[in-house]
Amino acid sequence: MIYISIPGLPPSTNTAYIDIVIGKGRSRSIKRVLTKEGKAYKTKTTAYIVEHYPTLLTMFKPNTPYGYIVQLVFPNLLNKTWPAEAKTRYKKLDATNRSKLFEDAMAEAFGVDDSVFLTTRYDKIQGEEQTNIWVWNMEEEAPYSGRAG
Q: Does any domain span residue 49?
């Protein structure tokens, strides 16, 4: 298992991607593309992993199943005015809404296709803003048959 810590948090899918319309009439289609913010995050995060963890990256092999846990560390998870005013105890900070762009950056840095990520878990905790990742080779570090049951 390897551990990687990255400063900051991935942007939500809502700010990382935009849908653009291509064509007119019946030939019209919608294409999802990265926004300027999304491109900047992916480039910065990929470069950070490659620069700060070069020896860890040698463990990744194509066509090998990997699992990972992502821990998103938010500065403040709690609504200060709960329960007096706020309806919920926790702020609406969706962890899984930040997963796609982060997984794409991770796959690029690791030199593998994101299809090799077979199990994932996202956690939210409170603390200094950062993204922590634990990644393991499912064939070597955990029993995995690829079948249910």
A: yes
Range of the domain at 36: 2-20+28-141
**pTM score:** 0.84
How many domains is the chain built from? 1
Structure tokens at 129: 């803003």
50, part of any domain:
yes
The enclosing domain of 75 has a CATH number of 3.30.1330.70
Instruction: Identify the sign of the CA torsion 46, 108, 72, 11.
Output: positive
pLDDT in tens, the chain (149 residues): 999 999 999 999 889 999 998 888 888 888 989 999 999 999 999 999 999 999 999 999 999 999 999 999 999 999 999 999 999 999 988 888 888 889 999 999 999 999 999 999 999 999 999 999 999 999 998 655 555 44
**Hey, what amino acid is at 113?**
D
Whole-angstrom distance, CA of residue 63 vs CA of residue 134: 19
